Amino acid sequence: MSKPTIDQQIIDFNCNLAFPGKLPPGIRVMNPFQESPGIVEVMSAFYHKFYHDHHTRRLIVGINPGRFGSGSTGVPFSDTTRLREKCGIEIKGLKTYEPSSVFVYDVIDAYGGVKEFYKDFYITSLCPLGFTAIKPGGKEVNYNYYDSPALTKAAYGFIVDSLKEQLTWNINKDVCYCMGTGKNAKFLQALNAKEHFFKTIVPLEHPRFVMQYKSKSKAEYINKYITAFEEYR
User: Fold this and answer.
1) What is the arithmetic mean of pLDDT over 167-172?
2) Which residue spans adopt a coiled-coil conformation according to this UniProt entry (predicted)?
3) Do 77 and 141 contact (CB within 8 A), yes or no?
4) Is 39 helix (H, G, I), strand (E, B) or coil?
5) Per-residue pLDDT tens for 131-159?
6) pTM for this prediction
7) In whole angstroms, how far apart are CA 190 and each of 103, 201, 203?
8) Helix (H) or strand (E) holding 58
9) Total domains in the fold of the chain
């Protein structure tokens, strides 16, 4: 029996995601593959298009899915606009815009475009399911796995097991690029010191940070990403 292509492995992984822990009060897990009609089909179309092979890829790790990126499309750092304009995949009846997605696809363009980039890289999140919290007044907002010690503790085993499963695929373990130079990098570096997943962790500024606080210097951060990719090619 032949080994499944990486798109099959990713789709199977996503479709079977389930958070096993007990969440702190006021925190909700966000699983678009179970909650959002049509997301599995969109996600599957994306990975069939760009990952139907056995090519070795380097890993880029974000924090956890947000509501307007992979929370709405099933594809990390890809809002509906970027999926349509850059990847040729349309979600009818839904339009989302995420600044982080804009930055990531600017990086992808600088690398050579979606075909070249996705042939070489697989983007995931350290915690592959997202979280939300309800603010006073009832507004639902994104919540990161590291935003409270209680959630970090609840998510820890899920994070480790999810990463271990993804690393059974054809993933290059020499280097892992971490989106986020603060709490996400600190957590991943500590985890890697214990589990020895990768030889090297390369922290890079998170796309959201760049777009929110450093947008005038965006070109410099794009170049930083490309330089880091070239260094470990």
Assistant:
1) 96
2) none
3) no
4) helix
5) 998 877 778 888 999 999 999 999 999 99
6) 0.94
7) 27, 11, 13
8) strand 57-62
9) 1
